Amino acid sequence: MKSVALLGRWTQRIQLAVLEVWQAELGREGITLYVEERFWEAWSQVRGAPVELPAFSRFSEVPSPLFAFVMGGDGAFLDAVRMVAPREVPLVGVHAGRLGFLTEVPQEDLLSATQALLAGHYLIEERALLSIVTDPEVFPPSEAFALNEVTFSKAVTAEMILLDVYLNGELINTYWADGLIVATPTGSTAYSLACGGPILTPRCRNFLLTPMAPHSLTVRA
After folding, report:
1. Which is it for strands 105-106 and 130-133: parallel, antiparallel or unpaired?
2. What is the domain partition of the chain in residue ranges?
3. Superfamily for domain range 2-119
4. CATH of the structural domain 130-214, one choice from 3.40.630.30, 2.60.200.30, 2.170.150.70, 1.10.10.10
5. DSSP assignment, residue 216?
6. How do residues 177-217 score in pLDDT, each as one tens digit?
7. Residue 136, pLDDT above cutoff 90
8. Least crowded by CB within 10 Å, which of 43, 86, 130, 208?
9. How far, in Å, are 15, 94, 122, 153 from residue 160 at the CA level?
10. Which amino acids are annotated catalytic?
11. Strand pairing category for 130-133 and 143-146
């Protein structure tokens, strides 16, 4: 069975007519559309989502998805990455939010873009991810992915914090600052940039260490 998934954040910018035509076309192609639970509920409240569409709360519930479409802005895309990344399914961003650097497909082009994807007329652009694994003796056990950045920041206190950064077991620097941002090339234009970090091209195989308000004249990103 062929299937695609739809995730995102419901906004007033979403064009219902486009969404309904797209869903009908997928059905004619014999492709089942699986809708993320929260998106399905929001769709239902506005007009009533088609009852035959299966909803999912975990991406593992979608059988063999060809693509995962994300409708919304960049925030919705970042949320979707954390859900979809473990299965390595191609993500397609459909712009229906405020910021759309990652959601590049205009809503009015959703149908034609889908037809091109199904015909194999596309290129996959791979982006670096950060994998976060915490020490259970220090933090609650957790494992997650980040497309933009991971931030280490102080708690509610006026004091700065001391951060020792190691690479492959070797100390590379010590930061005395309000915090530290570890950013991917994709995230270099987000929080890291606002804190004075440089911009990297998306395909660059590097990560950034950007200190937040460092107490040093020589320590910069």
Report:
1. unpaired
2. 2-119, 130-214
3. Probable inorganic polyphosphate/atp-NAD kinase; domain 1 (3.40.50.10330)
4. 2.60.200.30
5. -
6. 999 999 999 999 999 999 999 999 988 889 999 999 898 76
7. no
8. 86
9. 47, 40, 48, 9
10. 74
11. antiparallel
